[in-house]
UniProtKB/TrEMBL annotation:
<feature type="binding site">
    <location>
        <position position="256"/>
    </location>
    <ligand>
        <name>a purine D-ribonucleoside</name>
    </ligand>
</feature>
<keyword id="KW-0328">Glycosyltransferase</keyword>
<keyword id="KW-0808">Transferase</keyword>
<dbReference type="InterPro" id="IPR000845">
    <property type="entry name" value="Nucleoside_phosphorylase_d"/>
</dbReference>
<dbReference type="GO" id="GO:0005737">
    <property type="term" value="C:cytoplasm"/>
</dbReference>
<comment type="similarity">
    <text>Belongs to the PNP/MTAP phosphorylase family.</text>
</comment>
<feature type="binding site">
    <location>
        <position position="233"/>
    </location>
    <ligand>
        <name>phosphate</name>
    </ligand>
</feature>
<comment type="pathway">
    <text>Purine metabolism; purine nucleoside salvage.</text>
</comment>
<dbReference type="GO" id="GO:0004731">
    <property type="term" value="F:purine-nucleoside phosphorylase activity"/>
</dbReference>
<feature type="binding site">
    <location>
        <position position="128"/>
    </location>
    <ligand>
        <name>phosphate</name>
    </ligand>
</feature>
<comment type="function">
    <text>The purine nucleoside phosphorylases catalyze the phosphorolytic breakdown of the N-glycosidic bond in the beta-(deoxy)ribonucleoside molecules, with the formation of the corresponding free purine bases and pentose-1-phosphate. Cleaves guanosine and inosine.</text>
</comment>
<dbReference type="InterPro" id="IPR011268">
    <property type="entry name" value="Purine_phosphorylase"/>
</dbReference>
<feature type="binding site">
    <location>
        <position position="43"/>
    </location>
    <ligand>
        <name>phosphate</name>
    </ligand>
</feature>
<dbReference type="InterPro" id="IPR035994">
    <property type="entry name" value="Nucleoside_phosphorylase_sf"/>
</dbReference>
<protein>
    <recommendedName>
        <fullName>Purine nucleoside phosphorylase</fullName>
        <ecNumber>2.4.2.1</ecNumber>
    </recommendedName>
</protein>
<feature type="domain" description="Nucleoside phosphorylase">
    <location>
        <begin position="36"/>
        <end position="303"/>
    </location>
</feature>
<dbReference type="Pfam" id="PF01048">
    <property type="entry name" value="PNP_UDP_1"/>
</dbReference>
Amino acid sequence: MPPPTHDHADDVSIEAFTTATNYLRARLPLELATPKLAIICGSGLGQLADTIENKVEFAYEDIPGFVSSTVQGHAGKLAFGLLGDKRTPTVCMVGRFHFYEGHTLKQVTLPIRIFKMLGVEILIVTNATGALNRDFKVGMVGVMTDHISLPGLAGNNPLFGPNVSAFGTRFPPMSDAYDYNLRVIAFKAADYLKFPRGTLKEAIYTFVGGPSFETRAEARYLRSIGGDLVGMSTVPEVIVARHCGIRVLGLSLVSNMVAIGKGKSADPSEPVNGLEEPLVNHEEVLQIGKERALDMQKLVRTIVDLISST
């Protein structure tokens, strides 16, 4: 029997979310039907879903209201299963939706509200990111403490439009977007795994629309306003999760160093200055994700076990 059709992916009515939730619940075994934890797997980090047991998967295109991911490194499926030694019921979003793909922010964040209706209480959101702050190096993990949303400040907020009061208030605060206790657990997990000190570092994440990477001047501006890391995702999902009352832990794998120097001057009256900073490309982002996949899997599994033990 084909799944029910849903022609209004941008519909924010409670009925739209209920349709998708009921579709999933009807096809899940009882032990997986009410996950308490959700994980969004960012670029190159989809292997996290391979660590769960008793897995049940759903392609995005089969779920009512979902759109499809078009980005290399994003598989496009929900994977339900039991994660870690504590066998925590978990749903993994293997591949996310992005604003730059042409989706609306309501489409991008629709899965978060479905997670809430399924019973999710904690969201772990991961991404691959560029480092603006030179205290970060490729391979480090930024533990998000705050964010700067350039699209949001310009009016592109996923909560724009009618408020769905069943999920939350019209004006939700974001000053506590990234849960302190979950951040403490992340550092405890790194210590437990004996990661070298400094592998994890707290960071402010800057959200930009993409899909072009930042110019040098833009990167310097983002650094000047307090950004440590920059990426093209995550913040819309976090805003909707907090609107729903879901606690959030954000983990950013540093995949590249963002070019922030002024570069060489072509003006013969100016001294030759600036370093030749390599251009970033998406293949580099995916490669770093592959290289650090095992460490990220261990880190997230350990975090989930520690959360389940508290």
